[in-house]
Amino acid sequence: MDKKFYITTTLPYVNAEPHIGFALEIVQADVVARYHKLLGEDVIFNFGTDEHGQKIYQKALEAKSDPQKYCDKYAVKFDNLKKALNLSYTNFIRTTGPHHIVAAQEFWKKCLDNDDIYKKTYRQKYCVGCELEKTDSELVDNKCPLHPNKELEIIEEENYFFKFSRYQRALLELYKNSPDFVIPQAKLNEIKIFVENGLQDFSISRLKSKMPWGIPVPNDPDQVMYVWFDALISYISTLGWPEDEKNFNDFWPGIQVAGKDNLRQQTAIWQAMLLSADLPNSKQVFIHGFITVNGQKISKSLGNVVNPFDLVEKYGTDAVRYFLLAKINPYDDSDFTIKKFEEAYNADLANGLGNLISRIAKLCEKIKFQLVDVRSTPIKPVWEALDSFKFDKSLEIIWNEIKNLDKEINDKKPWEYPVKDGVSIPKQLSSFLLDASVNIVRIANHLRPFIPQTAGKILDQFTKGPIKVGKPLFPRLK
Fold first, then answer.
1. What is the pLDDT of residues 279-301, one digit of tens each?
2. Mean pLDDT across the stretch 191-217?
3. How many Cα neighbours within 13 Å face the side chain of 413?
4. 3-state class of 58 per DSSP?
5. Packing angle between helix 452-463 and helix 317-326, nearest 10 degrees?
6. Helix, strand, coil fractions of the chain, as percent rounded to 5
7. Class of the 338-478 domain?
């Protein structure tokens, strides 16, 4: 039986167009999924859309649209990322889907049966941008630091609450027993401190009369589920839980990819919910930083939103994937500018990889050179870095291989080797082209998870018959 591997991204809200920040998360997850598929594992890669909650309900009202029709329109835009970014996800889950609704209600019943859900009247400050309740200690000048342009709302109503406070010890035990549960280590330390400082029970429902856009609470028609409670369950409902026990048990637990603003939800709230429902915790959570644009966080109001579809249309899918993986720090915030993007494109892709392939192919075509029975050895440090989600380090190692091969060409000057009638192959040139072409194939095999289209073109060019010069992989930008 094949080894099973499951990875999921978080689910973006369908209240705006996809931007470069989320493209980062899903491309990172795609690399991990492709890598595990190369290892021969049976992979489920989940992506989808978070479609309930007050933020989306308000956006639908502003657009004078039915909430479901509004979600349908934006869900398609996120699913279109599959083609634009050449993604390999197997599942696309929507939280308005009928199976997910049933799964969320079943999960609620399990937490209720475990005495972790109760009802009370409360008053709380609430940030619609985060879809989270806020304590005064989390605010700056009485504003949410993540959404300073939004006014906090005051919620005063009777809702259901989840006994988050009950799981402080169990969560700390989880982090202690699994020191790599959250990567990077700094984020694990951060969530440990949050949990050590004490957990507060939180509201998991809303009055339907005030905010009707949500999954109905079982046996209470006056309440709908709070969006975070519902959305997190998508990670297991996509596996067929609770009906398809075999598929769920085969693939769960898995790896989650999340942005640092989701640290609390993914590594504490969701893990406590799983414990309450008597289900295994996630295997691992990888936390990435934000992409800033010209030094500022992406914001529609600032006008600095970068559309990944526009980038792909102008520069190509693999150029966008390469920049996100090679030039964006996988753990911390990094800045994006068109200037940095184009500099990396010309230096690494056009003048680096593309030029190397062209030079070797030209020499091979000249003497009708052909590889036979190619076997490339693994570059172990590439995969070791990838096991730790260090995408930039993996690509740095590959590009060092490219630079070394380029240097070898410059040093040995194989174009100066004598060739008779363009047919005879001197032993020296034949030996050089054999080594160089095998190295090209080796490099391409290691590029398959990162820039799969380009890797495929190189492998076709060098392993299927006589090697010939093809179209430039990355035409130089002027």
1. 999 999 999 999 999 888 887 66
2. 95
3. 3
4. helix
5. 110
6. 50, 15, 35
7. mainly alpha
